Amino acid sequence: MWKRSCSILPSLKHFHFTASHFSCTPVHFEPTTKICIVGSGPAGFYFAQNVLKKAPDVTIDMLEKLPVPFGLVRYGVAPDHPEVKNVINTFEKVATNKNFKFHGNVTLGRDVKFSELRQAYHAVVLTYGCNEDRELGIPGENLSNVISARKFVGWYNGLPEDKDLEVDLSSETVVVLGQGNVAVDVSRILLSPIDSLKVTDITEYSLQALSLSKVKTVYLVGRRGPLQAAFTIKELREMTKLPGVQTLLQKEHFAGTEELIPNLPRARKRLSELLVATSLKEQEGSRYFRPTFVRKPVEILGHSGSGVVQGVKFEINDIDHEKGITRGTGKHEVNECGLVLRSIGYKGSSVDSDISFDSNRGVVVQQEGVYSAGWIHTGPTGVILSTMSDAYDQSNLLVEDINTKKLNVTNSKPGFSAIEKTLISRGIVTVDFDGWKKIDKVEIQRGTAVGKPREKIVDIAEMLRIGGS
């Protein structure tokens, strides 16, 4: 793009000019680099933050399928962990940047095509996370009241797509399959005193259901041994301090670990020591948290008539504690229960057929002009801190590609002006960041009225009425 920059040098009062009175120099302006980020969770916001810091002339449009931002920080973090949500303060600062725009209620693959984003922007960044569940692949997995932990978390956290999930809490026993932090989160929510949940931002409908819950015992079951448990010491310590709850472990699961524990890496050593100490501790309480090891689920058992879950059949494993290798013994046992929560991991998926995607790994494949970060780049592992690190690394690559001309930004791109026309033609109502703040204000007001930080709006139509533009 070429422009003429003409400066008038003398006073204008005599209206007498000569050619020498004008300095006309051709000035070359690089077109503004336009980037689209799809997904408004930690990966998207940290990516935007770093790009805006290192390439301040770039403009960023962030698209989000929900009307509201923040992804798993809003819908994945446990309601009794409000301190984790403090990262939202950082994200809100990013949103105030004049070169950043948020556009909620825009679903890639449905409301706008990936090819349309490629045409409108110099680069497209995919940070939309992993929205599917890994499955066990065993008989009975589709029985009533066998639920993924991801959906259960979405239910109590107010994720619109999970608000109508049917959760039957009339049984005294729950089996959670998996031993990561999410598995411990759902166990803690099930066993927490209802009064402690009343002051969180847990949804009112789930609070009502939990207040009527008959659950007394939660089994947290894993295939491997205590030295391989995937939860962290912070999560375990919270469970050991939960009022009225005993954390019960079988001493035999620790046989053969005594000589190994002192030589473990520090974090693993501390966790293992706490597990052993807890297994020996006298406790009181009428509810029970039972981490159970070396058990492989082979079948979920149900009532033949009603199709409701009745228990889980496990094969008992042998384990080499040092190598973490298990083998089946051929011996089985059954845990009776009325609810099974499957917490064995998330899975990424392609939301548009034009995205280059590795379906085996569940991650986006890099291609020219397309970047990714977070779980859809790395796979579903790690916490917010590791997501931040990946987002910074990948955004540094984008900035480097701009600086080295590897990414062609010399051609003008329309950016959101083109996408907006497309969305309007398709009847899509969007929510900008000011619209989100309106929703935020209403949620806080409703929460304050009942002694909570907020009462999340779970109906998308209501969100759009409040914040739509």
Describe the structure.
A six-stranded parallel beta sheet has the order 8-16-9-10-12-11. It has 15 helices and 20 strands. It has helices at residues 42-54, 71-75, 87-95, 114-120, 149-157, 181-191, 194-197, 204-211, 233-240, 266-280, 375-378, 384-403, 416-425, 433-449, 460-467; strands spanning 2-8, 22-28, 34-38, 59-64, 100-104, 123-126, 132-133, 146-148, 173-177, 217-221, 245-247, 287-292, 295-302, 309-320, 325-336, 339-342, 346-347, 357-358, 363-364, 370-372. Helix content is 32%, strand content 22%. The chain is α/β, with parallel strands linked by helices. The protein folds into two domains: 34-131 and 348-430, 3-Layer(aba) Sandwich (Rossmann fold), CATH 3.40.50; 135-346, 3-Layer(bba) Sandwich (FAD/NAD(P)-binding domain). Helix 1 (42-54) runs parallel beside helix 12 and helix 9 (233-240) runs parallel beside helix 10.
Count of domain modules: 2
Oligomer: single chain
Largest sheet: 6 strands, parallel
From the 3D structure, determine the CATH topology of the largest domain. Answer: FAD/NAD(P)-binding domain
What share of the residues lie within helices? Answer: 25-40%
Structural class by sheet pairing and helices: alpha/beta
Report the CATH superfamily of the largest domain: FAD/NAD(P)-binding domain
Q: What is the number of beta strands?
A: 20
| Estimated radius of gyration | 27 Å
